[in-house]
Amino acid sequence: MKDQPSPIRETDDDARKLARVLLRSARHAAIAVLDPETGFPFASRVLVATDIDGAPVILVSKLSAHTKALARDARASLLTGEPGKGDPLAHPRLTTQCLAQPVDRGDAFHERIRTRFLARHAKAKLYIDFPDFLFFRLKPEQASLNGGFGRAYQLDGNDLIIQSAANEEIAAGAAETVRDLVERHPDVAEALAARLKAPESASWRICGIDLSGFDMISGDFLLRYEFETLAGDADHICSNISKIAYSIP
């Protein structure tokens, strides 16, 4: 009997880029944890943002079942990718296996994560500082990408993370970088939305930047754009964004 061909394709740069977009463009996701009492998988829904290196972060109540599970066993899987019209299985989705790391309020990067989370989820300001809420940073270990029928890939956790010593510097000056960019180009968000064919909505704004790309938000819509190559610093990020917004197609 002949060996059946593997359904898993060789992972290439296009697959890595699609996986990063699916993870970084998610505002919510399904999370699966292990019930500490029964050992059964337990699935729920969580709001998602990303840290400066692209790692997903979640804000959860200490009273929720998935939070109690993560306190006992840090392993979790996160499913991202929105179904569109027609067959839901024809649309790309990503399952990321992670290790959940609690982020205490005294941690040096807690404020950074809080700021980035609120940029995507403004309504979370109503409860984000309640004492019974906390962040988890989900460190990707490996991932399974289904890009549609016949397009399956296996990825390493590092395929999803921005590897750069400049991450911290970018995070510290992110708000100022975006503010300066908008002051120089007041219509930059509008130009980007038009160029990237964003869904029609009231008003778009840049809600996050990193060395790999930028995020834009308008109401419930979130758009993620990945640069062709990793930027080196804040000026490089702004240059990339300006070229995308104003260059001739």
From TrEMBL:
Domain called CREG-like beta-barrel: residue spans: 12-156
Pfam family, one: CREG_beta-barrel
UniProt xrefs under InterPro entries: CREG_beta-barrel (IPR055343), Haem_oxidase_HugZ-like_sf (IPR037119), Split_barrel_FMN-bd (IPR012349)
Gene Ontology, cellular component aspect: cytoplasm
The protein's name: Pyridoxamine 5'-phosphate oxidase-related FMN-binding
Organism the protein comes from: Rhizobium leguminosarum bv. trifolii (strain WSM2304)
